[in-house]
Amino acid sequence: MPSPESRPTIHIPGTTSHTIASRGRRHSHEGTLRYLKAGTGAPLVLLHTVRTQAEHFRFLIPLISDHYTVYALDLPGMGYSEIVPGASYQEPEMRVGVERLLTELDLQDVTLVGESLGAVLALTTAADLPERVRRVVAVNAYDYRDGIARSGLLARMVIGGIIAPGVGPVIARQEPKPVLRRILRGGVGDKTALRDDYLDELLQVGRRPGYPTVARALYRNMPSLIAARSRYPEVKAPIHLVYGERDWSRPSDREANKKLLPTADFTQVPGADHFISLERPEIVADLLASVA
Questions:
Q1: Is the dihedral angle over the CA atoms 74, 111, 89, 167 positive or is it negative?
Q2: With bands split at pLDDT 50, 70 and 90, how would you rate the model's confidence at 3?
Q3: Which of 7, 71, 137, 227 has the least C-beta neighbours within 10 A?
Q4: Separation of alpha carbons 159 and 216, rounded Å
Q5: Is residue 45 within 8 Å of residue 113, measured between CB atoms?
Q6: What are the C-alpha distances in Å from 235 to residues 128, 132, 261?
C-alpha cells in the first residue's frame, strides 16, 4: 500500500476510505484495493476512467448517495490501490479487481456504473457475475482503436511515445502538468471542469513508485479492451449505454455496440464529451435516480 506521505489530497464529503486486502501468495499479482464508500440504499459501484481514480466521481457521489450505498473503486494499480510488480493490466486481470470488490464485500443486487475503461469492466463483470448484478450503466465505453489518442494531436504524440518500445518507459516517467492537462482536456468541453486540484492529485498518484509502468501497460492494453466486447452479449442484466455527443468513440463504434446489445437502452447526451461524470455529473445522477 502507499506510504503515509502518499495520501489523497481531495476528500469527497460523506465518503470514507477502505481497503480490501491482497489475497496472499496464491494470488501474488492481486494487490490491496482501495475504495471509497458513501450513502445508504442499494449498492452501486463506480468504476473510473483510464489514468484516473475514485476521485473522478467527486461531483457525482454527493448527488447519488441519498439513493444508493456507493462504492467507488480504485482499479488495480491505479489511484491508491497497490502497485504489484509484474502484474498484468489487461482487461481480464483488471476485471478480477472489480469482481473482488463484489465478492469479498458480498454485494448483491448491484448497479454497476462505469465510465470509459470502467464501462468496459462494468459490462464484463456483469457477464461474469450475473447473480450479483442488477443493472449496468456504461458511459462512453472505451473499447475502440486508438482510445485516448483520439483526444487530440498532443495525446497521439505522447501516448504513441509511451507505448513505443525502447523509449516508452522513459517517456512514461515524464508527465508535466501542462501536458496532462492538455490531454485530459480533450475529454471535456467545459475546460474549467478539469480543476487544478484534481490534476495535482493525479500527478501525485503518477509519482508513486511503479506507476509509470502501470500507465504504460494501460495505454498498451487497448487490444484487450476491444476483445472484451465479445463478452457484452453475455450480460443478462438491463443495460444503459450512455454516450456523449462529442465522445472519442465514433458513430460506427457506438452502432457496433448497439448491434451487440440490441435490448440495451441507448442515450446520447447532446454537447457532452468523454468525461461526462466529471463535467456533467447531473446527467448520470438523473439517470440513476430514474432507475433507483
A1: negative
A2: very low
A3: 7
A4: 9
A5: yes
A6: 8, 12, 9
pLDDT per residue over 64-114, tens digit each? 999 999 999 999 999 999 999 999 999 999 999 999 999 999 999 999 999
**Residue written as grid cell 475502440:** 144
For residue range 162-172, what is the model confidence (pLDDT) as tens digits? 888 888 887 88
- Give the whole-angstrom CA distance, residue 12 versus residue 62: 8
Helix, coil or strand: residue 55: helix
SS3 content of the chain, % helix, strand, coil (to 5): 45, 15, 40
Q: Which long-range contacts (CB under 8 A, 24 or more apart) does 22-30 make?
A: 22/82, 22/84, 23/100, 28/84, 29/84, 29/86, 29/87, 29/88, 29/93, 30/76, 30/84, 30/87, 30/96, 30/97, 30/100
CA 52 to CA 194: how far, in whole Å? 12
Alpha-carbon distance of 218 to 127, in angstroms, equals: 22
> Cell for 106?
458480498
For residue 82, the surrounding DSSP H or E stretch is none
Helix/strand/coil for 135? strand
Which stretch of DSSP H or E encloses residue 89? Answer: none
Given a contact cutoff of 8 angstroms between Cβ atoms, the answer to whether 225 and 249 are in contact is no
pLDDT in tens, 21-53: 997 766 678 999 999 999 999 999 999 999 999
Structure letter (DSSP) for residue 170: H
